[in-house]
Amino acid sequence: xxxxxxxxxxxxxxxxxxxxxxxxxxxxxxxxxxxxxxxxxxxxxxxxxxxxxxxxxxxxxxxxxxxxxxxxxxxxxxxxxxxxxxxxxxxxxxxxxxxxxxxxxxxxxxxxxxxxxxxxxxxxxxxxxxxxxxxxxxxxxxxxxxxxxxxxxxxxxxxxxxxxxxxxxxxxxxxxxxxxxxxxxxxxxxxxxxxxxxxxxxxxxxxxxxxxxxxxxxxxxxxxxxxxxxxxxxxxxxxxxxxxxxxxxxxxxxxxxxxxxxxxxxxxxx
Length: 270
Ligand code: PXP
Known about the structure:
47% of the residues lie in helices and 15% in strands. It has helices at 20-29, 36-45, 64-73, 86-95, 122-134, 147-156, 166-174, 179-197, 213-217, 229-238, 240-256, 259-263; strands spanning 14-18, 50-54, 78-82, 99-102, 138-143, 160-164, 201-205, 222-227. The protein has an 8-stranded parallel β-barrel with strand order 1-2-3-4-5-6-7-8, surrounded by 7 helices. It is globular. Pyridoxine-5'-phosphate binds next to strand 8 and helix 10. Residues 18, 20, 54, 81, 101, 103, 111-112, 142, 162, 205-208, 226-230 line the site of pyridoxine-5'-phosphate (PXP).
């Protein structure tokens, strides 16, 4: 049976805080500081609705022990990002996080570069979606905002998709308000509408910042954003709790006034 979709406070738009890069900094020196669990607890007190952590094959940030502690010792639901491999499936079934987000993974990449090929990888993905769902874990597929990927996700029986916002964020950071940024934003809007039409819960994430999040938060059918690198980097300057609080406030303002946030289609008005 699939668990209720939200275990955190009921909100229109949930914030999942990805704490991978707390572990990246810890691993730079070994030892235990900074502790990702401490970050997870601070995120909870700052208003995060969930914690996201990616256990990579090469364990470059999160470790198996981190995942065990995050499942066992924090109150917030854990969204475990992982590749569709037998090793990761066994770990997920052992720890039973609230949710698993299946992501593509390449050893050589510095971050998750694109979405899963749900359309081309049906045979590979089907047993993962089935086994995780049967264990009561909410499964999401991290996909590019493309119609064929959404249809494939629905056919696979995944209840949730997470749309990759990386191309939009890159276009925005190169030159906000340009056609390229608007085009990428439109792809995300169309995909979010299509996800709803297909009965899929829709999340989004990757590369989001205070500047890029408002038009995304303004998309009314999105229910969860997962944000990591920017929050952890910004926390160096402003502290983790104030940074997360500010992100929540920016998201909520955009949700309350979508036109002002660029939700009406014109990014240059912001
Ligand atoms: N969602 C997914 C599926 C991801 O793989 C990542 C990166 O680990 C994120 C969201 C968060 O991206 P960022 O760290 O750029 O905010």
